[in-house]
Amino acid sequence: MSVLSALKPIHLRSPRSSPGGQRRHTLPASEFRCLSPEDAISVFEIEREAFISVSGDCPLHLDEIRHFLNLCPELSLGWFEQGRLVAFIIGSLWDQDRLSQEALTLHKPRGTVVHIHVLAVHRTFRQQGKGSILMWRYLQYLRCLPFARRALLMCEDFLVPFYQKCGFEVLGPCEVTVGELAFIEMQHPVRGHAFMRRNSGC
User: Fold this and answer.
1) Which of the listed CATH numbers 2.130.10.10, 3.30.2130.10, 1.20.1560.10, 3.40.630.30 matches domain 30-195?
2) What positions does the domain N-acetyltransferase occupy (predicted)?
């Protein structure tokens, strides 16, 4: 089974039928799927609005988004409503216990640690729990990947409670800095492929 086939698009509601009983050809109401390089501009627009007003910079710039979506699209997940991207996660593989400055731009194909670079939700869909739901789905998806052992991320202090509610634990201050910003590093264990194949249909 290929990595990409492990995450099939999921439609939360069936397309509505027309009054005559014939099904309309409409986009799915809600869909989760891996992102592609063609999604990069939509991703960057959401990310830019979400982060620049708070920290003055984006975790990933447009060329870096394209870089990761070309190298490892299977480590991304987008939430689409009526074909419109409303939230996303982008990750890559890392091969060390803790994150370093290099982890911001590198994808280590032989790594077993999934570095979650960014999670962002479109401004009109915030305060609806979508970030938590997307992270839960992403972690479930990672458990279907045979190489994934842990998920790592870095965040500012005010986001630590959010990620703790998602099941992440604090590792301590992160070595990585961006300008004057400092971060907390957090981790989440990812169960092995065989366990999840037996227990969740992966």
Assistant:
1) 3.40.630.30
2) 30-191
Rounded CA gap, 181 and 202, in Å? 39
Residue 11 has pLDDT above 60, yes or no: no
CA–CA distance, 51 with 59 (Å, rounded to integer):
8
pTM of the model: 0.82
Q: Which residues contact 191 (CB under 8 A, 6 or more apart)?
A: 143
Angle, in degrees to the nearest 10, between helices 62-71 and 40-55 = 130
Q: What residues act catalytically?
A: 92, 106, 117, 119, 163
Model pLDDT, residue 63: 97
Question: In which band, very low, low, confident or very high, does the pLDDT at 15 lie, cut at 50, 70 and 90?
Answer: very low
